[in-house]
Design brief:
Layout (H helix, E strand, L loop, with lengths): L3 E10 L2 E11 L4 E5 L6 H8 L7 E6 L2 E2 L4 H5 L2 E4 L11 H9 L8 H9 L13 H13 L5 E5 L7 H16 L3 E6 L2 H7 L2 E6 L2 E7 H6 L3 E7 L12 E7 L2 E6 L3 H9 L3 E7 L3 H8 L3
Parallel strand pairs: 3-8, 3-9, 6-7, 7-8
Antiparallel strand pairs: 1-2, 1-4, 4-5, 9-10, 11-13, 11-14, 12-13
Helix pairs in contact: 4-5
């Protein structure tokens, strides 16, 4: 049995197709990435899976249960972390978490203090007094309290500083070792690279690829900026380069290919400085999927 199985899922708003024949499968115990630029349809697909919106056509099952017919049962097995959280402002964090835990028979309230200490969250403060980052910490703790079989995470690190992001990833890795399946939606490629073995890539409501992460990385473009000590007379670039721009002794270009070939080319020149930069996802999609 698959943790998630989606077949030709569609969502229409009038003439606008928010989801177009979305299909993918996730194995139990897998950490699966769901990646795409903002507005690609990630959150819409997640809301459909949770039964928060009605789909126009297609089918989806989570843990063997139909998302439309057995939504109540499913939501007891899922820990959901939305990209933005909205709570009762006058509650304290502790009150909110205890209130939330009471909705589930499997909740472990001892985790509240344990995770609050781990994420450095003051449980005595009212929700209204919390920063966006601390509200996100509260949401993270909330989605773990009932020991879910499946975590569905929508842009989970937004609002977290680098230290808290790292602690969050470590917590996910610990939970995954216990058998928890993780569906990780993000527009940040480095997060998907760290956490996932496979990922579905969505753009404009369509799944355009489901790939192993290593395969995706091999096709990933790099932005390269080079400053030569002297303007070179030979301006041949490594195979896989495109969109080069020269400005006297400065060069910028995009590169797709083995990183060893690029490093070899750089070593052949007398350089003052060089920068390799990960591009935004839109650039990766335009560069790779249109090729």
């Amino acid at each position: 049995m698959k943790a998630i199985k989606v077949e030709k899922l569609n969502k229409h708003y009038g003439d606008f197709h928010a989801l177009k024949d979305v299909s993918f499968e996730i194995d139990k115990g897998e950490v699966f990435g769901f990646i795409g630029p903002n507005g690609a349809g990630k959150s819409t697909a997640i809301r459909a899976l949770l039964g928060l919106i009605q789909t126009s056509s297609g089918t989806a099952k989570i843990l063997g249960h139909d998302i439309q017919l057995e939504g109540k049962l499913l939501r007891s097995k899922i820990g959901y972390l939305p990209s933005e959280v909205h709570y009762y402002d006058e509650m304290t964090s502790r009150e909110l978490l205890e209130y939330s835990a009471n909705f589930y028979t499997t909740s472990d309230t001892s985790k509240i203090d344990e995770l609050a200490e781990y994420f450095e969250l003051d449980l005595s403060k009212k929700i209204n007094d919390l920063s966006f980052g601390n509200k996100k910490k509260c949401a993270i703790i909330q989605c773990f309290l009932h020991n879910p079989e499946l975590l569905i995470l929508d842009e989970p690190t937004s609002g977290l500083d680098p230290l808290m992001q790292n602690r969050f990833f470590e917590l996910l890795e610990t939970e995954n070792k216990k058998g928890t399946t993780i569906f990780f939606s993000s527009h940040i490629l480095s997060e998907i690279q760290r956490m996932c073995n496979r990922a579905a890539v969505i753009k404009e409501g369509e799944i355009i690829a489901v790939e192993e992460i290593q395969s995706l990385l091999q096709k990933q473009m790099k932005k390269v900026r080079v400053v030569f000590k002297d303007s070179p007379t030979e301006k041949t670039l490594p195979l896989g380069s495109q969109h080069e721009k020269w400005n006297e002794n400065k060069l910028s270009f995009e590169y797709v290919g083995p990183i060893s070939d690029l490093i070899s080319w750089l070593n052949q020149h007398d350089l003052h400085d060089t920068v390799l930069q990960e591009p935004d996802l839109d650039s990766i999609f335009m560069n790779y999927y249109e090729r």
